């Protein structure tokens, strides 16, 4: 049963609608400092995302890619719940919980350029709600349909309020045509209430192809009429910070250029998970952290 | 059986390779005049394609779109062999032979901006080998995988030599993110010999999803390493002229913005079809013209 004071109800009565966000986008009142300038914070607040071209240097992304390639070719990933493969080819499509499974990505999650920025925007210490590496191969990369992460995290994971953000760090060059992340500017200000109920064990399917908790066409048209679409491009090391409620997705990729990104979801320690709002069993730890929720300690450099 | 003097063999012995083109790209020797400047002709020859932004005015594309919308909502298209529908939704995806089926598109095919330009590059009178309108709907437009049209037209239709070209005229705005046509510059100079044999009645399937006559990954990588990828964007009325052997394709489209284009394939009257080079039954008239192959007469304005 939905709790009575749920400010972000979804998938309940079969009615799609847009409702206005009640939470801040940037939690300025705590006066938390960080690496972003005031202008950058304003842009993030206004647009719901911020692009930082080449935030990481070429040699850093070379190291990250080499570590990833060794990892994928090792037996370490086989049979792990954290490893998601393509339905047909069996190729690795995503790896979850990379901030705990791999030392270099563990370090990356604690880097001030990411953790410091996240804490600045969230106005508090933060922990990783979910992390993953997405590998969109050349020639056959599949699309990710439009979604607000928060809708899923709220309904299926019990994340109470909008006080979380994602960072997508490009490990390969993002071109306009290899299925880059697309975001709808300003969409973070509206919550799209989705149709339908959440089936049991939905997460196993949804990681391959989203079918529930999907925004309806009219809401998407309304959001793009207001804000358009942006698809940030850039060299490896380019980071896109985006609010947990920013509508995003990506097209498929038939080009020979693969697209790999690492995602970290930072959640405020003030916003830890409750029971899911859908009344179902919580998703597992590697999808939505419930146990490892201590504030991340910044990397000492 | 393949004919002994076939200069562009494909799908024969299971070996993928690139062979060099033996035909001219622009048939200059006939001195045919037309609307393109010498610089435009040079660009086309060098790149294998030429973009003409807003070649048709806004009011012209409004008329074309209105005519198309009425046509699709009329019963005229139902059950026609020329009408191709989406596998799942049943929505119209393509209409073939539009230059004969609809008066406004009949007129468009004879417009000097298209027919005159085609005749100039082909160095002769021309006729329509194939025409179609493609409708890539918003939210669920599917990709078209990489292909050289000539490979199919040669093997399956018996088009003897590379003396044909396509024009894609945008009926909706082409954004970087709504599945625009992608071309590989310079790819028209190499013929990609494809794997596999051609099954009977292949055309019925191939119009939905290409499975045979598909270029291999190594060849595609080689072509993009040389030439990169371009995805021309522009308002409705923008035309892309591209050589029959230019490698092209398009990604899917999850955005709300549909992408509709009209394609005309102009073939030189010196290059009319022979028997297919695969030994199979010719594809039907609406896919590959054999009967209606008289030189198109320019529109008198």
Text of the CATH class of chain A: Mainly Beta
* CATH fold topology of chain A: Jelly Rolls
Q: What profile does the largest beta sheet of chain A have? A: 7 strands, antiparallel
What is the percent of helical residues of chain A?
Answer: 10-25%
Order of the strands making up the biggest sheet of chain A:
2-10-7-12-5-4-3
Overall pLDDT confidence of chain A: 91
Distance between the termini of chain A: 48 Å
Radius of gyration computed on alpha carbons of chain A: 18 Å
Number of helices of chain A: 8
Secondary-structure element order of chain A, as H and E? Answer: EHEHEEHHHEEHEEEHHEEE
What is the CATH architecture descriptor of chain A?
Answer: Sandwich
Number of strands of chain A: 12
Note the beta-strand portion of chain A.
15-25%
Shape label of chain A: globular
Helix vs. strand class of chain A? alpha+beta
What is the assembly state of the chains in this entry? homodimer
Biggest interface between chains: A-B, 25 and 25 residues
Instruction: List low-confidence stretches of chain A.
Output: none
CATH superfamily of chain A: q2cbj1_9rhob like domain
Give the number of domains of chain A.
Answer: 1
